[in-house]
Amino acid sequence: MNATFTLLEMRRITRDWAGMFFTAVLPAFFYLIFGATVDAKDATIGNGNVAMYVMISMAAYGAVTATTSIGGNAAVERQQGWGRQLGLTPLADSSYIAMKALIAMTVAAVPILLTFALGAATGARGSAQAWVLSAVLCLVGSAVFAVYGLLVGTAFRSEAAVGAASGTMVIFAFLGNVFIPLSGALLAFAKFTPLYGYAALARYPLTEGYLPDGSQDPLWVPIVNVLAWLAIFGTAAVLLVRRGRERQ
Amino acid sequence: MTTTPRPVDGASGAPAIELRSLVKSFPSRRGSQDAEVRAVDGIDLRIEPGEVVAFLGPNGAGKTTTLDMVLGLTEPTSGTAEVFGRRPREAVVGGHVSAVLQTGGLLRDLTVRETVRMIASTYAVHSPVDEVIDRAGLRSLADRRVSKCSGGEQQRLRFALALLPDPRLLVLDEPTAGMDVTARRDFWDTMHADASAGRTVVFATHYLEEADAFADRIVLIAGGRIVADGTTAEIRSQASGRTVSATLPPGSVAESVARLRTVGGVHQVEERGNRVVVTAGDSDTVARLLLLELGGTDLEIVTAGLEQAFMTLTGDGRDARDARDAPDARDARDARDATTPDEELVR
């Protein structure tokens, strides 16, 4: 691990104020609006309350916004010639990937910590186990969307496309039962969308599968969703990267 | 110069670059008749330590692809490339070879110094960051964002990055492409100052003047093959003849042109208003005729430049132009280093 390289990469990310706002501040703000200040915030769900439910959802949203953009920008940078520049150095591809993964996880941790801290201060309640496990699941699961970013970055080769991919997280969040509780046909559909499994899994230590509409998901539903989307993003990214290589 | 070339270790006596039957082909694009495009079509070349060599050729000749294989950025389809007797990637990891690539490929949100620090951090041993910044003439720009640097300044930054491992072989791929005249001169001044270190330098260019001014040896590449290889003087002597031009009295031009065409050893006569441009083996005879009999004034005699040699050696002018414009020959290169987002979307 190369500390200088990693820290300089981190500095680049913190320089991007707009990106940091959408990643770190917006989810926290959303939590305050949709979680901490709503009437139902103290209503019970699983082993905690609705405020905690919203807190985990927003933290998850912030984390995927970060990993999508970091994964996507890594792909774009490499294709715009930085990959060739690095190819002239002793840096191995595996070290590069390890560093980018560490950075993505570090940045994804920012909205999680911020939102969880706000939650703790504003009445989010859940078991101690739920607090710890949810935070870990938010962080680990967000890696799936680094692959999604990588896919979009490889396919479209522009920073604008990566920005758009990050933006689509808002849509996926609505469709995936993250921002507002869905029910009926919409909820049935939501279970097939990319953010549903990840967010449901992150909330599972709190909800034990219970949904705001009173129904309950067995654990395999979010797990299958996450694995399926990981397989889809992963396969598509591998195919695209391979296609790019053959052209070299 | 504060550094000395690193001692020759292990593979002492090995050439700086040795290419044997090097071939690189790319799958052709959809809709093309050919099954593949041969960007590099059998190159054998040996470059000794300390030489300064220009790869000269039109766009799409295979220069960049060849250098990519020397740098281990691309694997050959067949044949071998060795740098100081090692595989290219080993030579890169050992810091024996470095390169200044064409435009693109810097992170715009870093400063100049941060970029140098970042690349420096990938080497176990490297020249001090401030030293390479000074040598590339970047001291006053060290804290400027890359996005705010001009093309020439960015190229000097790439040069600084290439100096970090203090390489024995420095490869420059069209280092001045897209620079204005002043920036180009500055860049080569910086390079000249550094050449005294006894480094082997190989650079690709399609500017004849650059090859002429900076290289001891020119390797002329066209259509993925070496078409000539020698000192600048040798290449030039392979071109035949000189160009004689003069202004003729108004009204007599057509008649004079007809007369000049009958003279032995005249290859070509061109009319440009009142001026004629004659390419001929025996320039003295033509000059005498123009001045004494045809009433010519403002006479100029120019030795055929490298340009002429280039045309002669890459086939006649027409073939050379065709080769240059052949879409497939260009594609091979474009596919790798110049893909625009738009292009990608339509694929």
Task: Give a quick set of tags describing it.
heterodimer, A: 248 residues, mainly alpha, two-stranded antiparallel sheet, 2 strands, 78% helix, 2% strand, globular, B: 347 residues, alpha/beta, Rossmann fold, Alpha-Beta Plaits, 6-stranded mixed β-sheet, 4-stranded antiparallel β-sheet, 14 helices, 13 strands, disordered N terminus, disordered C terminus
Summarize the structure.
Chain A is mostly helical and 248 residues long.
Helix and strand arrangement:
The complex is a heterodimer of chains A (about 250) and B (about 350).
Chain A: H1 3-15, H2 17-36, E1 44-45, E2 48-49, H3 50-87, H4 93-121, H5 128-141, H6 143-156, H7 159-175, H8 184-190, H9 194-207, H10 220-246
Chain B: E1 17-27, E2 36-47, E3 52-56, H1 63-70, E4 78-83, H2 88-93, E5 97-100, H3 112-120, H4 129-135, H5 151-163, E6 169-173, H6 181-195, E7 200-205, H7 208-214, E8 217-222, E9 225-231, H8 232-237, E10 242-247, H9 253-261, E11 266-272, E12 275-280, H10 283-293, E13 297-303, H11 306-313, H12 317-325, H13 327-337, H14 341-346
Parallel strand pairs in B: 3-7, 3-8, 5-6, 6-7
Antiparallel strand pairs in B: 1-2, 1-4, 8-9, 10-12, 10-13, 11-12
Strand order of the largest sheet of chain B: 5-6-7-3-8-9
Number of domains of chain A: 1
What is the general shape of chain A? globular
Supply the helix-strand structural class of chain B.
alpha/beta
> On the 0-100 scale, what is the average pLDDT of chain B?
80
- What is the typical, i.e. mean, pLDDT of chain A? 91
The CATH homologous superfamily of the domain at 17-96 and 167-237 in chain B is named P-loop containing nucleotide triphosphate hydrolases
Structure description:
The complex is a heterodimer of chains A (248) and B (347). By secondary structure, chain A is mostly helical. Chain A contains 10 helices and 2 strands, in the order H-H-E-E-H-H-H-H-H-H-H-H. Chain A has one domain. Chain A has a two-stranded antiparallel ribbon. In chain A, helix 2 runs parallel beside helix 4, helix 3 runs parallel beside helix 5 and helix 3 packs across helix 9. By secondary structure, chain B is α/β, with parallel strands linked by helices. Among the domains of chain B are: 151 residues, Rossmann fold (3-Layer(aba) Sandwich); 62 residues, Alpha-Beta Plaits, CATH 3.30.70.100. In chain B, 36% of the residues lie in helices and 25% in strands. Chain B has a 6-stranded mixed sheet, with helices on both faces. Chain B has a 4-stranded antiparallel sheet with strand order 11-12-10-13, with helices on one face. The longest helix of chain B has 15 residues. Chain B is elongated and about 75 Å long. At the A-B interface, helix 1 and helix 3 of A face helix 3, helix 5, helix 13 and helix 14 of B.
